[in-house]
Amino acid sequence: GDSVTQMEGPVTLSEEAFLTINCTYTATGYPSLFWYVQYPGEGLQLLLKATKADDKGSNKGFEATYRKETTSFHLEKGSVQVSDSAVYFCALSSHIIFGKGTRLHILP
Amino acid sequence: EADIYQTPRYLVIGTGKKITLECSQTMGHDKMYWYQQDPGMELHLIHYSYGVNSTEKGDLSSESTVSRIRTEHFPLTLESARPSHTSQYLCASSGGARAEAFFGQGTRLTVV
Fold first, then answer.
1. How close is the nearest chain B Cα to the Cα of A81, in Å?
2. For A20, A88, B4, B92, which has the most beta carbons within 10 A of its beta carbon?
3. What is the pLDDT of residue A28?
4. Residues B91-105, mean pLDDT to the nearest whole number
5. Which burial class, exposed, middle or buried, applies to A56 when counting CB atoms under 10 A from its CB (0-12, 13-18, 19+)?
6. A23 min Cα distance to partner chain B (Å)
7. What is the pLDDT of residue B70?
8. With contacts defined as CB-CB under 8 Å, which chain A residues touch B105?
9. Strand ranges for A1-108 from DSSP E
10. Across chain A, what does the average pLDDT equal?
11. Do A101 and B41 count as a contact with CB atoms less than 8 A apart?
């Protein structure tokens, strides 16, 4: 069946460090792929998305590329800020399948 | 800004009480979902609906029930609350097979 495997956290980085959170998926057909972010006490917000192979989603300095050949959708940011501290979820377009989430802590 | 609303935001209730968590969306989405989540932890799908009069159970065994009488409304009911039901409940909706989901702010439920 469909599944998403996401890098386990917590991930702790210093401000301005480079961030990668790995996400790989198994799916039948051609799903859209998403990254969601959850700040403390809030619901999930869409961070970025990609709808087909080789698409790159980007938002707020974050990027992820839909790689069909490696079934991956890794989240990256070149220079993280304290305000990026949150939990990040990778998901398939069924929205029945989410990764387990990666908690990110950014130290000033 | 997402137009999906959950009420109440916070609820403290005694064991054995019946409760209904409300979720409404104004986007005309056919697909709606309920997730249970301990704060910041893994999401567990407990119910979903692909349209009016269509409801399915998710992967997580739950003692709750849902109904979908109107497109915009997807309430979740617990007939007899227990301390094990203490958690955050998130409602979401999406339009189209490949579209993103929009999430409500969540209901933080505490059963004492």
1. 19
2. B92
3. 85
4. 91
5. exposed
6. 15
7. 97
8. 42-43
9. 3-6, 11-14, 19-21, 23-26, 33-38, 44-50, 56-59, 62-65, 75-77, 86-92, 102-107
10. 94
11. yes
What residues of chain B lie within 8 A of the CB of A98, using their CB? 42-43
Return the DSSP state at A29. Answer: S
- Predicted local distance difference test score (pLDDT) of residue B2: 59
Which chain B residues touch A95 with a CB distance below 8 Å?
Answer: 31, 33, 92, 94, 101
Q: Name the A residues in 26-65 with CB < 8 Å from any B CB.
A: 31-32, 34, 36, 38, 40-46, 49, 51
> Residues B53, B59, B60, B66: what is their CA dihedral angle, to the nearest 10 degrees?
0
A58 CB contacts (<8 Å, ≥6 apart)? Answer: A48, A64
Calculate what percentage of chain B has a pLDDT beyond 90.
Answer: 86
C-alpha A23: how far from its chain's center? 7
Write out pLDDT tens, residues B17-57: 999 999 999 999 999 999 999 988 999 999 999 999 999 99
By residue count, chain A amounts to: 108
Q: Which of B98, B103, B106 sits opposite A51 (nearest CB)?
A: B98
pLDDT of B1 higher than 60 = no
Q: A11 to chain B: which residues are within 8 Å by CB?
A: none
| CB neighbourhood size of B43 (10 A) | 27
For residue A97, the chain B residue with the least C-alpha distance is B45
Which of A82, A95, A104, A108 is closest to A38 using CA atoms? A104
